[in-house]
Amino acid sequence: MKAIVRIQVAGVLAAWALAANSFGDVTSFAELLSGKTVPLALKMKDLNDEWRHVNVGPVASSAGGVSAIYSAMLGGMAGGGVYYTKGQTVTIGGETYLIAYHAPAKATDPAALQQLMRGGQMPEAEKPTAQTSLALSLLNLRLTGSFNDIRPFNFDFETTGSESAMATEDEKRVQEINSASLTNLRKLGTALLTYERERKVLPLFDDARTAQEELVLYVSSKEVFVQPETKKPYQPNPALSGKKRADFDKPAETVVLYEATASADGTRGVLFLDGHVERCPESKWKRLKQDAQLP
Asked: Higher model confidence: residue 138 or residue 271?
């Protein structure tokens, strides 16, 4: 029997990306789904320490209207759950997607659904094995969503859930700080859009102080202008100062604001002109810094 490959396209905000690889513009989904650009499916045993485990929140459009019952009936197609990614991205039709892989959920049997509707618990997900199939998933970077429990891929933890494979307390703290910093950058991205909508140009971005003065009326608190732990202000890209979005050919690769120093895990939070935010490893940050001619 021929294997059936399930391709899931989930709309979520890539609050974090993990590597410098990008495939750039791809002509169409047909080209991507040919399997020539990226594999359509992998096995759990194919992953290594270059990959990251990411818990993706539900798709924004389903968060208010799709209950756990319907999510179960859809077999996990609502977009949430655990994904595995190396941070590679692809652009199709002007939309940028994070390339990830996800173990498709098995459909819940009718008896379990009836129990769930009577107030019972969701059935516990089966632990993956080395042979568990992972389907290609495309996560839209522009749409709202959340990433949680981000950690390096650990085969023992994924397959057994053993405490020894869990992140240390220090690692968890770094993850929490990194997530909070990306939340700040995301809010600044929203403020930037509002500013641009009203004034038809991008703010003056000569330095961090000027950027704050330009955007302060569009945020709920001045705390969003600084990294939560270091308290250092996010640095702007002066090349955007007073210009129009149309002046930039690749908004998904154009830096807007970034953390002044790298996090303890070596990544740096960055807001891009298309509105998505990433945690960029040093290798990718060096390239972005050079391309933008940042100090």
From this structure: 271
Q: What are phi and psi of 143, to 5 degrees?
A: -85, 155
Q: Which two tokens stand for residue 206?
A: 């000569």
- Write the pLDDT tens digit of every residue in 211-262: 999 999 999 999 999 999 999 999 999 999 999 999 999 999 999 999 999 9
Burial (CB count <10 Å: 0-12, 13-18, 19+), residue 161 = exposed
Bridge partners, 96 (sequence order): 91
Query: What tokens appear for 68 in the block?
Result: 């756990």
Phi-psi region of 24 (alpha: psi -120 to 50; beta: other; left: phi over 0): left
Close Cβ partners of 211 (under 8 Å, ≥ 6 residues apart): 203, 204, 205, 225, 234, 236, 257
Consecutive H or E run containing 278: strand 277-281
Q: What per-residue confidence (pLDDT) applies to 27?
A: 59
User: What pLDDT does residue 33 have?
Assistant: 80
Nearest CA-CA partner of 125 in 102, 146, 101: 102
3-state secondary structure of 288: helix
For 11, phi then psi, to 5°, come to: -90, 105
Q: What is the largest CA-CA distance in the chain?
A: 63
Residues in the chain: 295
Determine the Cα–Cα distance for residues 52 and 111; give it in Å rounded to an integer.
35
